[in-house]
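Today's session is about reading a structure prediction critically. Students often jump straight to the picture, but the first step is always the sequence itself: look for stretches that repeat, for charged clusters, for runs of hydrophobic residues. Only then move on to the predicted structure, which in these notes is written as discrete structure tokens rather than atom positions. Here is the chain we will use throughout the hour.
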Amino acid sequence: MINIALPKGSLEEQTLQLFKEADLEVRRTDRDYNPKINDSRIGKVKILRPQEIPAYIEMGYFDIGISGLDWIHESGAQVKEVAELNYSKTGPGTVRIVIAVHQDEPISNVREIRPDSRITTEYPKITAKFFEDLGISVRLFPSYGASEAKVPDLMDVVVDLTETGTTLRKNGLKIIGQIMESYTTIIANKASYDDPVKRKEIDEIVTLLLGVIEARNKVLISMNVPADALESIVSALPALKKPTVAKLHGIDYFSLETVVMKGMINTLIPKLKALGAEDILEIPITKIVR
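Below is the predicted structure for this chain, in token form.
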């Protein structure tokens, strides 16, 4: 039985939705600090700040957890990165730790930052190493939120996490450099991952979660196809793999099914119908396990 740490805050909604879609729903009340997952492989579940999770995983309080690559680097925790999860706080994709200054600053490159500049950030360790490697002496001020609002009145530079840079620009800032890209990831305690019993349970849970990620934005499409239209219809399918084709009993028709991206289905169905496909079904997919 494995113990799991899930992230609170910006990653919380996306993470809970992922577990729900994987049939591992996290059940809790608003004041419940000990949620449950109804699965025999899962014991204790805690929802914690993602900043804390890597250290707790390293210390063995939890077997696996979900956090950001940024917090693994910032904490310096020695953990096993098991799988990347393709989502951030608002949806699919990665995020960036960037360096920004006020838009009126006459600099466009991090190497132009003046020595002894005041820098506010939630990532003091990552930031300190970055400027140390550049050979620029700076003063670091740990931030506990709204970092972008502190420039230029209180600080000269902000090092912050962003997806698009929109919030920084709205606050009159410009990005002049990047420290790293980050993404959401499943991490494991190294001893737990080396334990054959726990490793099996971890791998099974990860398989379910990745199956949901893989299935997102995809649908199964099924149809009946006259024999003389089969090749043209197969050629028109933007399939992830070759479609499954089966002969229908007693008539000169085939049954055809394949997986396609949901974003193209509304233009694909009329095209297939025009080519002769009949009885077309669009079927939602909850998991794809490769």
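Discussion point for the tutorial: The radius of gyration is 25 Å.
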